[in-house]
């Protein structure tokens, strides 16, 4: 947040910064529709408290006074957590999730709840892409990605089980991170999937890391996990010596313009002296690509089985209100046996072992974030034959299966829309 030095020298204040954010929201929200709830009174109170701390020299953290949006899957004590479904309209838990509590303890200004797809799955909400309202912002962290792309706030929280941070972030020109599995505790999040990650959408790397770091040192990781590693300040930029291109199952589906733009990035890296390795260059990389080649199906089956008890309880409690797509997930869950689930877990573990085996070959992996720029919104897509209206997570499923850290950077533009590039480690 570029305002921090001005907060420190008194030429700006967290309250004044918040008011500028609210002005942007007032101007852009009628079209972008990224917020479910705004707690302006609570945010102003928190911003005033941060202003007083800066004046007194008692700053709590590097994000003290930063306005932040919270995906409406994560519990907040002062706002409803509706989870993108009318079934939970107005439901307020009166408790904070671990990540939100950590942000408050760091002095962040929790401004509101951002739109999510239904229960954080694929049935989309009303949010539009801030770069073209005819296009999807992606999902399921639709609102969190859109508020960053629209310049409404400097950071927002997202969650990912398959592709729900990286994909919308790439569609909306965010810098965003899905940390390694278990790095940030996800207690107080609606579903405890074995691939659940909490991450950060931001306008730049510095804000992204500051928010993640301040959460990590206060909330810790998932039970039994060591949590987030790293220092408070980003390390100086350093050129990698070798990078592996992760094709996954997405490469064969990628449109020509997006593939061409990505190849240009790879060419620029080669020109800078970075060795680029691909699946044909080493049998271990080929084995890795084979192991992640069914990541979409692995995610579908793992999530389907793990979602069963939640959906069964909802169907028993509410006779209507779930979308057809959500009911189809319940049908999938009912079709699976415990033996099926064990088999898909074995597939996932094999992919993780193959990933570990290539670790010594390069400094990291590089990949696209999506098979193309943001698809048309659902009402537009019906006329054009587009089926995946929040975007197909073909490149994201692999990193969720692996539990690896992934960052998307807004490096490309295709057909006038943002296209992100993933860096994976």
Question: So what's the CATH class of the largest domain?
Answer: Alpha Beta
Could you estimate the helical fraction of the residues in percent?
40-55%
- What is the count of helical runs? 14
SS-based class:
alpha/beta
Kindly, what is the distance between the CA atoms of the first and last residues, rounded to a whole number of angstroms?
25 Å
**Major sheet: arrangement of strands:** 1-3-2-4-6-5-10-11-9-7-8
Kindly provide the radius of gyration, computed on alpha-carbon positions and rounded to a whole number of angstroms.
21 Å
Q: How would you spell out the order of helices and strands?
A: HHEHEHEHEHEEHEHEHHHHEHHEE
User: Spans with pLDDT under 50 lasting ≥5 residues?
Assistant: none
CATH topology assignment of the largest domain: Amidase signature (AS) enzymes
Q: Architecture of the largest domain, CATH level 2?
A: Alpha-Beta Complex
Count of strand segments? 11
Number of domains: 2
- Principal-axes shape call: globular
């Amino acid at each position: 947040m570029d305002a921090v030095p001005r907060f420190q020298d008194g030429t700006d204040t967290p309250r004044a910064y918040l008011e500028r954010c609210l002005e942007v929201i007032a101007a852009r929200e009628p079209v972008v529709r990224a917020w479910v709830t705004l707690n302006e009174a609570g945010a102003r109170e928190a911003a005033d408290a941060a202003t007083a701390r800066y004046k007194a020299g008692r700053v709590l953290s590097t994000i003290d006074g930063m306005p932040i949006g919270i995906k409406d899957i994560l519990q907040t004590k002062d706002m409803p957590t509706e989870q993108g479904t009318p079934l939970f309209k107005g439901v307020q838990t009166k408790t904070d999730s671990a990540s939100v509590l950590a942000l408050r303890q760091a002095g962040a200004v929790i401004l509101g709840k951002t739109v999510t797809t239904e229960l954080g799955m694929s049935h989309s909400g009303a949010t539009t892409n801030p770069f073209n309202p005819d296009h999807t912002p992606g999902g399921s962290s639709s609102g969190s990605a859109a508020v960053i792309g629209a310049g409404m706030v400097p950071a927002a929280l997202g969650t990912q089980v398959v592709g729900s941070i990286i994909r919308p972030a790439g569609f909306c020109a965010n810098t965003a991170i899905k940390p390694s599995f278990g790095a940030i505790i996800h207690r107080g999040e609606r579903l405890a999937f074995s691939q659940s990650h909490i991450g950060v959408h931001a306008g730049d790397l510095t804000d992204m890391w500051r928010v993640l770091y301040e959460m990590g040192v206060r909330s810790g990781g998932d039970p039994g996990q060591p949590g987030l590693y790293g220092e408070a300040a980003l390390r100086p930029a350093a050129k990698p010596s070798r990078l592996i291109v992760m094709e996954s199952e997405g490469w064969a589906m990628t449109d020509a313009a997006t593939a061409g733009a990505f190849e240009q990035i790879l060419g620029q890296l080669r020109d800078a002296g970075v060795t680029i390795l691909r699946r044909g260059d080493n049998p271990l990389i080929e084995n890795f690509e084979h192991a992640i080649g069914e990541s979409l199906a692995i995610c579908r089956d793992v999530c389907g089985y793990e979602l069963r008890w939640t959906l069964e309880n909802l169907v028993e409690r509410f006779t209507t209100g779930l979308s057809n797509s959500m009911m189809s997930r319940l049908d999938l869950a009912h079709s699976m046996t415990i033996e099926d689930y064990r088999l898909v877990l074995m597939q996932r573990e094999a992919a993780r072992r193959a990933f570990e085996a290539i670790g010594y070959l390069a400094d990291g992996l590089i990949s696209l974030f999506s098979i193309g720029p943001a698809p048309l919104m659902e009402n537009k897509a019906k006329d054009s034959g587009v089926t995946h209206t929040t975007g197909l997570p073909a490149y994201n499923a692999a990193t969720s299966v692996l539990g690896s850290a992934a960052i998307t950077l807004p490096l490309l533009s295709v057909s006038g829309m943002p296209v992100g590039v993933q860096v994976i480690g």
